[in-house]
Amino acid sequence: MPANPVPGDIVPFLRYTDPFAAVSWLGHAFGFVPILMVEGENASLAHAELRLGSSAIMLGGTKDDVLGMRSPHEAGGVTQGIYVVVPDADALWERAVKAGADVVRKIYDTPYGSREFAVRDPEGHLWSVGTYRAGSYEGA
């Protein structure tokens, strides 16, 4: 590890073919709250920021640009995974299932003390949810 690590935050960003539907679904399934919505050309959604607790994500519509980002359905497979830390995974499990999440892994207890599950959103992005906070493991 460097002697003087650079401070920073990690903010995932995703692309969706229907970003307005994604904002709605993420709010319904997980409780994300939109904090910024920037309209693009032809009433598209150029950029959105959504908050959950003290964290945020950014998203926008798929487009041909230098990043080349696609939704998992467009790419033909999972393109990333996001882990969401919550105090009550069971409550969010019920909420996500009711919202129609595609279940990848049902809720379970891990050997490292987390209660978690994994689902895909309507465009195939992978969301893992659990009680474990990365970087907090004392056994290493």
Task: Give a written overview of the molecule.
With 140 residues, the protein is of the alpha/beta class. The protein has one domain (13-130): 2,3-Dihydroxybiphenyl 1,2-Dioxygenase, domain 1. It is built from three helices and eight strands; from the N terminus they run E-H-E-E-E-H-E-H-E-E-E. The protein has helices at residues 19-30, 72-75, 89-98, and strands spanning 13-16, 33-39, 45-52, 55-61, 81-85, 102-109, 115-120, 126-130. The strands form two sheets. A four-stranded mixed sheet has the order 1-4-3-2, covered by helices on one side. Strands 5-8-7-6 form a four-stranded mixed sheet, with helices on one face. The radius of gyration is 16 Å and the shape is globular. It starts with 12 loop residues before the first strand and ends in a 10-residue tail after the last strand. The mean pLDDT is 91.
Helical content band: 10-25%
CATH topology: 2,3-Dihydroxybiphenyl 1,2-Dioxygenase, domain 1
Q: CATH homologous superfamily, by name?
A: 2,3-Dihydroxybiphenyl 1,2-Dioxygenase, domain 1
Distance between the first and last residues' Cα: 15 Å
* SSE ordering: EHEEEHEHEEE
